[in-house]
């Protein structure tokens, strides 16, 4: 595929890495980024510090491009915030290197298809290229025709709802003004939480970050009440890897949360099932069960940190090979099953595990993991290195493993500016996004 064009959807860490590898291989990347800058989604959790040192966050091909500029590698042992990663790594890569002419910003992809072929059309399908349709800021729609597509759009914009069945609970959609998803910046938005009652839902370290930030507000306002709802009653899942963990800070957030529960400053509701929400003036009445016993609480805000799922709607006319449970590529799914694996136990993988029925189309990064929360950024970098080698015709390099992971937890997130903090995102492995799932998750 020498001299061919490849669309990369998303200019996050894995998308930027894919583009850098494409340039090195003599292929032309066309990066379509929904936001106004590289790493736009990461800025939405920019206040969160990952437990992943810089040495696990910089892709080798991107580093080689940056080394041709005045860029300086941050302290390799320090742990940045999401904003640090964007401002000190992604934006320099996107603006100072050969990537600067490859990225179109405020370009929201609305569909990727085989050129002039629907999903049901087979004649000439293998020889056909791809058409990627996108919308720019003024609402105009455009299309680009390419030889391959790498979808690195992530999952941040599709958070899981409250319901245990994967659906919004009754009253959730109608009360969005009182519900936040992901990891809100409690400290900078303190007026929304201080002196109020907040229910945090989720069993990952993203949820713990939110809980501990709320407890910090509670120290200065006795009227600030914090409830934490977990699907299961197993706090041990939130602890780190102990002596076997090569990332020493992992687990501290879980320990801090346990201390708050033991001291009585945090109300733990577990195992919890939310049945419905009803409006009570400016507050919400939450109808729920704890351990099977029905009850209700009234809160002013709900924060849902319950993980994410991929948006597959833009791929509806492509022939995908996805696992029905995890919604990851079928060959990858057994390797990332969160019932078996944590982020540190997922083996490095590449083009062979990421193939679909339509050739030269790939889903990478966190989106490749579907609903599994075990993603590590380093793993995403290995994915795109392998895929780009395959597209360039270097089949040996594509099948060679060039990644060695830390033993257990390259996974984590940590509250910026606090002494106690924690795990997973995006994993010390790296994190593209913080963990929010009710497992030993990594990058949510």
TrEMBL record:
Keyword Oxidoreductase belongs to the record: yes
Matching SUPFAM superfamilies: FAD/NAD(P)-binding domain (SSF51905)
Gene3D superfamilies hit by this protein: FAD/NAD(P)-binding domain
Domain of life according to the entry: Bacteria
Keywords: Oxidoreductase
Signal peptide interval: none
InterPro entries per record: Auxin_biosynth/cation_transpt, FAD/NAD-bd_sf
UniProt-recorded Gene Ontology molecular function terms: flavin adenine dinucleotide binding; monooxygenase activity
Stated name of the protein: Thioredoxin reductase
Source species: Pseudoteredinibacter isoporae
């Amino acid at each position: 595929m020498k001299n061919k064009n490849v669309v990369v959807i998303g200019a996050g860490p894995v998308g930027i890495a894919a583009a850098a590898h494409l340039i090195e291989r003599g292929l032309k990347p066309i990066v379509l980024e929904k936001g106004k800058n590289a790493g736009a989604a990461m800025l939405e959790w920019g206040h969160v510090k990952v437990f992943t040192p810089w040495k696990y966050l910089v892709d080798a091909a991107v580093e080689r491009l940056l080394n041709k500029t005045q860029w300086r590698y941050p302290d390799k042992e320090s742990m940045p915030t999401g904003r640090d990663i964007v401002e000190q790594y992604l934006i320099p890569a996107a603006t100072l290197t050969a990537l600067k002419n490859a990225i179109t910003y405020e370009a929201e992809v609305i569909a990727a298809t085989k050129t002039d072929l629907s999903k049901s059309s087979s004649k000439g399908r293998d020889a056909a290229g791809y058409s990627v349709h996108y919308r720019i800021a003024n609402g105009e729609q455009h299309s680009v025709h390419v030889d391959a597509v790498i979808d690195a759009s992530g999952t941040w914009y599709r958070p899981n709802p409250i319901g245990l069945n994967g659906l919004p609970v009754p009253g959730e959609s109608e009360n969005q003004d009182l519900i936040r998803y992901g990891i809100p910046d409690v400290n900078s938005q303190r007026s929304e939480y201080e002196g109020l009652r907040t229910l945090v839902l989720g069993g990952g370290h993203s949820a713990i970050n939110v809980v501990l930030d709320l407890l910090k507000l509670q120290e200065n306002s006795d009227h600030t009440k914090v409830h934490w709802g977990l699907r299961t009653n197993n706090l041990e899942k939130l602890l780190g890897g102990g002596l076997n963990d090569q990332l020493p800070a992992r687990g501290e957030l879980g320990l801090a949360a346990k201390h708050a529960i033991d001291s009585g400053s945090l109300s733990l509701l577990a195992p919890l099932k939310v049945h419905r929400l009803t409006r009570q003036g400016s507050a919400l009445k939450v109808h729920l069960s704890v351990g099977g016993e029905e009850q209700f609480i009234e809160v002013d805000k709900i924060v849902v940190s319950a993980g994410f799922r991929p948006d597959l709607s833009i791929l509806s006319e492509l022939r995908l090979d996805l696992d029905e449970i995890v919604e990851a590529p079928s060959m990858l799914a057994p390797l990332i099953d969160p019932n078996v694996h944590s982020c540190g136990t997922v083996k490095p993988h590449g083009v062979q595990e990421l193939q679909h029925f339509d050739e030269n189309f790939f889903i990478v990064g966190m989106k490749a993991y579907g609903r599994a929360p075990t993603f590590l950024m380093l793993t995403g970098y290995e994915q795109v290195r392998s895929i780009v080698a395959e597209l360039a015709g270097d089949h040996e390099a594509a099948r060679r493993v060039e990644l060695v992971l830390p033993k257990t937890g390259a996974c984590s997130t940590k509250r910026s500016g606090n002494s106690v903090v924690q795990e997973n995102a995006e994993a010390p492995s790296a994190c593209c996004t913080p963990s929010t799932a009710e497992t030993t998750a990594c990058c949510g």
